[in-house]
Amino acid sequence: MTRLAQTEGLNEDQRDILAAIREFVDNEIIPVANELEHADEYPQAIVDGLKEMGVFGLMIPEEYGGLGESLLTYALVVEEIARGWMSVSGVINTHFIVAYMLMQHGTAEQKATYLPRMATGEVRGAFSMSEPGCGSDVAAITSKAVRDGDDWVLNGAKMWLTNGGSSTLVAVLVRTDAEADEGASVYKKMSTFLIEKPSGFGEVRPGLTIPGKIDKMGYKGVDTTELVFDGLRVPADRILGGEPGKGFYQMMDGVEVGRVNVAARACGLSMRAFELGVEYAQQRVTFGKPIFEHQAVSFRLADMAVKVEAAHQMMVMAARKKDSGERNDLEAGMAKYLASEYCKEVVEDSFRIHGGYGYSKEYEIERLYREAPMLLIGEGTADIQRMIIARRLLEEYKTKS
Ligand SMILES: Cc1cc2nc3c(=O)[nH]c(=O)nc-3n(C[C@H](O)[C@H](O)[C@H](O)COP(=O)(O)OP(=O)(O)OC[C@H]3O[C@@H](n4cnc5c(N)ncnc54)[C@H](O)[C@@H]3O)c2cc1C
């Protein structure tokens, strides 16, 4: 346990889970993360270990074979895992969002079909809103499903699916205009489809192609892909919740918890960057003393520690708000915005402390430096968070005149 980023008021189960995860991260993830990341290799042994520990079912209710834990427990687990290697938290994030969307919006049959196998990690989830032509502007999606007898037929292209190749269940947002009433809001003209597929690349089932992995600057190991529909037939009962027209709202609900998750990842990455910086600053000697004793370096470390602590507490607050059953879009947006911006700054400060060695692939900070920018973009860019925050504040602080 470290002094920074403590969480008050955890129960014994939560403390036990976090201690087990931290041990796993220290022994099984940190020692191999750099090598796997540089090789862009999928962390199969780590994923198998997480399956055994029940991490894939952490928030899935016990009646479906999960551990029934809170969003807070989940976020703290993600923070620990990202401290070891952010890509591993990416493996579980989309799975968790799909399981959450099923728990909140699935029909009884959909929950019974998928949640028990998601809890064991046998079925693994990916979620897909973004397209080649739009990410922030979700309502501009063009992929479309058209009703044909008992099926829907899907056409179009999706972009940036984290776990697109390794997953076996994708929650996909597409337009279903034909079912909507004339003049209905654009937000009611979209539906989420639950699409089963084998893992892998190429035409994985008739009408569904996963072209291959996108070569990314960081966040390697975890696969990020495109997805192409060309006349994919999906039965009508695979629309999440059973009815068309609710997809946009379901996805936004999923993204809200996803934002807490991204904040948690940023906290884990910041914590690791701080640990690496404070360690290096005590070893490296310049002008006859450890660089920690130069005030410029110690002030840098102080700034980093303040940011690690502030981001953690805000992330915990956002998770607790959602767990209390209250709307948390404001808090999740604030936590995601603050934690990802601070993460970028803390990682850069640690990089500077490492001097020239920080630029070497032998040092962990080099990897963190390439990973941090993804957090500024995923689950809604910083600017989109600021729009959400400002909009919600205007609702709360509307002038009474
Ligand atoms: C590694 C990675 C993994 C991803 N995984 C997934 C996934 O699993 N599923 C998924 O659906 N998506 C995923 N995404 C996509 C991600 O959610 C989008 O990239 C993100 O939402 C931004 O969309 P965009 O890239 O289209 O940028 P754009 O929307 O084109 O934005 C470009 C720039 O314009 C700014 N901007 C846009 N609109 C406004 C506005 N109204 N006001 C002010 N500024 C604005 C943005 O802030 C940004 O700076 C992933 C992305 C990456 C990089």
Structure explained in plain terms:
This protein has 401 residues and is an alpha+beta fold. The protein has helices spanning 12-39, 44-52, 71-84, 86-105, 108-120, 247-283, 295-323, 329-353, 364-377, 382-396; strands spanning 125-128, 144-148, 151-162, 169-175, 190-196, 202-205, 208-210, 224-235, 285-286, 289-290. It folds into three domains: 12-120, Butyryl-Coa Dehydrogenase, subunit A, domain 1, CATH 1.10.540.10; 125-246, Butyryl-CoA Dehydrogenase, subunit A, domain 2; 249-396, Butyryl-CoA Dehydrogenase, subunit A, domain 3 (Up-down Bundle). The strands form three sheets. It has a five-stranded antiparallel sheet with strand order 2-3-8-7-6, with helices on one face. Helix 8 runs antiparallel to helix 10 (382-396). It binds flavin-adenine dinucleotide.
What is the compact description of this entry?
This protein is of the alpha+beta class and 401 residues long. 51% of the residues lie in helices and 14% in strands.
Instruction: Identify the CATH homologous superfamily of the largest domain.
Output: Butyryl-CoA Dehydrogenase, subunit A, domain 3
Largest sheet geometry: 5 strands, antiparallel
Output the CATH topology of the largest domain: Butyryl-CoA Dehydrogenase, subunit A, domain 3
Q: Helix amount, in percent?
A: 40-55%
